[in-house]
Design a protein that fits this description.
The longest helix is centred in the N-terminal third of the chain and has 14 residues. β8 and β9 form a beta hairpin. 17% of the residues lie in helices and 34% in strands. The protein has 142 residues and is an alpha+beta fold.
Length: 142
Protein backbone atom coordinates (compact mmCIF):
# COMPACT_ATOMS: atom_id res chain seq x y z
CA UNK A 1 0.00 0.00 0.00
CA UNK A 2 2.95 2.33 0.54
CA UNK A 3 3.45 2.66 -3.23
CA UNK A 4 -0.18 2.76 -4.35
CA UNK A 5 0.01 6.41 -5.43
CA UNK A 6 2.76 5.47 -7.88
CA UNK A 7 -0.03 4.00 -10.05
CA UNK A 8 -1.50 7.39 -10.88
CA UNK A 9 -3.72 10.19 -9.69
CA UNK A 10 -6.57 9.07 -7.38
CA UNK A 11 -9.80 8.91 -9.33
CA UNK A 12 -13.43 8.17 -8.49
CA UNK A 13 -13.94 5.44 -5.94
CA UNK A 14 -16.90 3.30 -5.01
CA UNK A 15 -17.81 0.59 -2.52
CA UNK A 16 -15.45 -1.96 -4.01
CA UNK A 17 -12.74 -0.10 -5.94
CA UNK A 18 -10.38 2.79 -5.43
CA UNK A 19 -9.17 4.01 -8.79
CA UNK A 20 -5.90 5.53 -9.91
CA UNK A 21 -5.58 7.20 -13.29
CA UNK A 22 -2.45 7.35 -15.40
CA UNK A 23 -2.04 8.60 -18.96
CA UNK A 24 -3.19 5.37 -20.66
CA UNK A 25 -4.44 3.15 -17.83
CA UNK A 26 -7.02 3.02 -15.06
CA UNK A 27 -5.99 0.97 -12.05
CA UNK A 28 -8.70 -0.43 -9.80
CA UNK A 29 -7.75 -1.56 -6.32
CA UNK A 30 -10.51 -3.96 -5.29
CA UNK A 31 -11.17 -4.41 -1.58
CA UNK A 32 -13.13 -7.67 -2.16
CA UNK A 33 -16.00 -6.45 0.05
CA UNK A 34 -18.68 -6.78 -2.67
CA UNK A 35 -17.14 -9.47 -4.85
CA UNK A 36 -17.63 -12.55 -2.66
CA UNK A 37 -13.91 -13.24 -2.54
CA UNK A 38 -10.98 -13.46 -4.88
CA UNK A 39 -12.24 -16.48 -6.86
CA UNK A 40 -15.59 -14.86 -7.64
CA UNK A 41 -13.86 -11.64 -8.65
CA UNK A 42 -11.54 -13.51 -11.01
CA UNK A 43 -14.55 -15.33 -12.50
CA UNK A 44 -16.26 -11.97 -13.05
CA UNK A 45 -13.12 -10.61 -14.75
CA UNK A 46 -12.97 -13.61 -17.08
CA UNK A 47 -16.64 -13.14 -18.03
CA UNK A 48 -16.16 -9.39 -18.53
CA UNK A 49 -13.19 -10.02 -20.82
CA UNK A 50 -15.20 -12.58 -22.80
CA UNK A 51 -18.25 -10.33 -23.30
CA UNK A 52 -16.51 -6.94 -23.47
CA UNK A 53 -13.01 -7.58 -24.87
CA UNK A 54 -12.45 -3.93 -25.83
CA UNK A 55 -12.35 -3.04 -22.11
CA UNK A 56 -10.59 -6.17 -20.86
CA UNK A 57 -9.14 -6.25 -17.37
CA UNK A 58 -5.62 -7.39 -16.61
CA UNK A 59 -4.22 -8.29 -13.22
CA UNK A 60 -1.50 -5.81 -12.37
CA UNK A 61 -0.66 -7.29 -8.97
CA UNK A 62 -1.79 -7.35 -5.37
CA UNK A 63 -1.59 -4.92 -2.47
CA UNK A 64 -2.90 -4.80 1.05
CA UNK A 65 -1.92 -4.34 4.65
CA UNK A 66 0.68 -6.70 6.02
CA UNK A 67 -0.93 -9.73 7.64
CA UNK A 68 -4.46 -8.28 7.39
CA UNK A 69 -5.74 -7.85 3.84
CA UNK A 70 -5.02 -8.63 0.25
CA UNK A 71 -6.45 -6.53 -2.56
CA UNK A 72 -6.09 -7.30 -6.26
CA UNK A 73 -4.96 -4.41 -8.44
CA UNK A 74 -6.69 -4.57 -11.82
CA UNK A 75 -5.87 -2.48 -14.84
CA UNK A 76 -7.90 -1.40 -17.84
CA UNK A 77 -6.99 0.76 -20.81
CA UNK A 78 -8.13 4.32 -20.24
CA UNK A 79 -10.86 5.44 -22.62
CA UNK A 80 -10.07 9.05 -23.48
CA UNK A 81 -12.33 11.61 -25.09
CA UNK A 82 -15.52 9.71 -24.34
CA UNK A 83 -18.65 10.49 -22.42
CA UNK A 84 -21.36 8.45 -20.69
CA UNK A 85 -23.61 6.65 -23.16
CA UNK A 86 -27.37 7.11 -22.98
CA UNK A 87 -29.49 4.19 -21.82
CA UNK A 88 -31.00 3.90 -25.32
CA UNK A 89 -27.49 3.58 -26.79
CA UNK A 90 -26.66 0.95 -24.17
CA UNK A 91 -29.85 -1.01 -24.87
CA UNK A 92 -29.05 -1.01 -28.59
CA UNK A 93 -25.45 -2.06 -27.99
CA UNK A 94 -26.40 -4.90 -25.66
CA UNK A 95 -28.99 -6.09 -28.19
CA UNK A 96 -26.29 -6.13 -30.89
CA UNK A 97 -24.22 -8.34 -28.57
CA UNK A 98 -27.13 -10.80 -28.38
CA UNK A 99 -28.61 -9.79 -25.03
CA UNK A 100 -32.27 -9.28 -24.24
CA UNK A 101 -33.32 -6.41 -22.02
CA UNK A 102 -34.82 -7.37 -18.65
CA UNK A 103 -37.55 -5.38 -16.95
CA UNK A 104 -35.06 -3.55 -14.73
CA UNK A 105 -32.98 -0.74 -16.28
CA UNK A 106 -29.43 -1.83 -17.08
CA UNK A 107 -30.20 -5.56 -16.75
CA UNK A 108 -29.73 -7.95 -19.68
CA UNK A 109 -29.61 -11.67 -20.32
CA UNK A 110 -28.99 -14.24 -22.99
CA UNK A 111 -29.01 -18.02 -22.78
CA UNK A 112 -25.57 -18.03 -21.08
CA UNK A 113 -25.18 -14.86 -18.99
CA UNK A 114 -26.89 -12.29 -16.82
CA UNK A 115 -25.38 -8.81 -17.05
CA UNK A 116 -26.48 -5.89 -14.90
CA UNK A 117 -25.45 -2.41 -13.79
CA UNK A 118 -24.92 -1.57 -17.47
CA UNK A 119 -25.94 2.05 -17.03
CA UNK A 120 -24.51 5.38 -18.22
CA UNK A 121 -22.04 5.72 -15.32
CA UNK A 122 -20.46 2.39 -16.42
CA UNK A 123 -20.58 2.74 -20.21
CA UNK A 124 -18.73 5.26 -22.35
CA UNK A 125 -19.19 6.24 -25.98
CA UNK A 126 -16.57 8.01 -28.10
CA UNK A 127 -17.03 10.46 -30.96
CA UNK A 128 -17.15 7.57 -33.46
CA UNK A 129 -20.02 5.92 -31.56
CA UNK A 130 -17.86 3.08 -30.21
CA UNK A 131 -19.17 1.75 -26.90
CA UNK A 132 -17.05 0.78 -23.90
CA UNK A 133 -18.51 -1.08 -20.93
CA UNK A 134 -15.96 -0.25 -18.24
CA UNK A 135 -17.79 -1.85 -15.34
CA UNK A 136 -20.65 -4.32 -15.14
CA UNK A 137 -21.86 -7.14 -12.96
CA UNK A 138 -21.90 -10.51 -14.72
CA UNK A 139 -22.97 -14.01 -13.76
CA UNK A 140 -23.58 -17.26 -15.59
CA UNK A 141 -27.23 -18.09 -16.19
CA UNK A 142 -28.47 -20.95 -14.05
Amino acid sequence: MDNIFDLGIPGPSGNENDTYVSKETIYKVNNLLNSGGICKLLDKILLHNLIFPNTAYRIHGFTGYDGRTIMPVLEQDRICEAEPATQIMIDTYMSALGFDKDSEIGHYRNNLYLVWDVVPRNVLVDKDGDMYVVDAEIAKNK
